[in-house]
Amino acid sequence: MDITLLVIDSFGIGAMPDAAEYGDAGANTALHICERVAGDKWPNLQKLGLGNASKILGPDLPGCEAVGNPLASYGVMAERSPGKDTTTGHWELAGVVLDKPFPTFPPEYPSFPAVLTDAFQRRTGRGVLGNYAASGTVIIQDLGDEHRATGKPIVYTSSDSVFQIAAHEEVIPVEEFYRICEIARELCDDYRIGRVIARPFTGTSGAYTRTERRRDFSMPPVGQTVLDLLFEQGIETIGIGKIGDIFCERGITTSHHDKGNTACLERTLGVLKRKAVRDRFIFVNLVDTDMIYGHRRDAAGYSKAVSQIDAALPGMMETMDDDDILILSADHGCDPTFAGTDHTREYVPVLWYAPGRDPADLGIRKQFCDVARSVCEAFRCEKHSKGEAFF
Questions:
Q1: Which domains does the chain have, with CATH numbers?
Q2: How far apart are CA 135 and CA 284, in angstroms?
Q3: What is the maximal distance between C-alpha atoms in the chain?
């Protein structure tokens, strides 16, 4: 049996009750994209029940409305952990609930504590530029020339718990750059910073562009994940995209670090076509919706990225046997019509497609970790301690 979990990064479906505490009251990624981009859209997600999931919270999705007989069980999930970042969302989908958020830092210079940046400079033998909150595409234009002249890496943060480092590939070779990021990860552990993110870039003055060699150096999960549990019980676990980075490769049999949605979708379909003898759990992150379109507030581009995912679904579904399962969800919101450039605190949709099971209304779930519990139930293996099964 194959169970595939596709995470459409940042594809939120409505502000959570506590969204105002995060400055996100009124956010709704899916709805506002549908309102901004005219016409019918995402026909396969619509058939599965995406519009039905939205109706649980109230609004119709224009162009992706509820259908009479959805193919999948559908619902929405609230995030139980505090926060609205990638690590928190993925960990909770996998069964780890945080009792306190990862720390964030002030947006103005200096964002990071002097003890941290001093240690970073001492350990790497390099100074730093930046040290404030910024858009990654903007800060490399602002500081790229100085970086190339001095060799100092650019460090910056955002509303998430991140220590981001940018460097030109001709100034700091990529492998050396990753070594610098590993030093930063070690130092950031003492501060519980969720991720150190390597942001290599290339180009010349006024035309710097980030490359696909980004890497995330995450804290190890603070509890048992569904990946850990399945791995220990002999079920093959496959990570595609950022999954290996997010979970520090823990509990993963095979990790494919494909970059971008096109490569990740092709990899997923290829894995599904190669039927295995033993049970498999395939965990996929599709990052373009968030990284390229959500943060850059490009609703039309976001809609096209979802359309690309939508177009790939029939091929995946054709590979499925009656006992296989395809799950679609998200890790947080990033409403491209909202103020600022940060994530938004939202419910996420959950679509559970199982050819051998009649669809059901899953309602409003209290936590993302219902996914982890339900996956264990489907594999008929040891139950994860967190969450409530869908069935």
A1: 2-99+220-379 (3.40.720.10), 114-218 (3.30.70.1250)
A2: 25
A3: 63
| pLDDT tens column, 288-308 | 999 999 999 999 999 999 999
Pairwise CA distance, residues 138 & 166, whole Å: 11
Please state, in angstroms and rounded to a whole number, the distance separating the CA atoms of residues 372 and 374: 5
**Pair of tokens at residue 200:** 């290599």
The C-alpha atoms of residue 180 and residue 305 are separated, in whole angstroms, by 32
The alpha carbon dihedral of 213, 219, 222, 228 has a sign of: positive
pLDDT tens for 149-205 read 999 999 999 988 999 999 999 999 999 999 999 999 999 999 999 999 999 999 999
| Average model confidence (pLDDT) across the chain | 96
User: What's the whole-model pTM score?
Assistant: 0.92
| 3-state secondary structure at position 284 | strand
CB burial of 68-79 (b: ≥16 within 10 Å; e: otherwise) equals eebbbbbbbbbb
State the residue for tokens 């999948």. Answer: 72
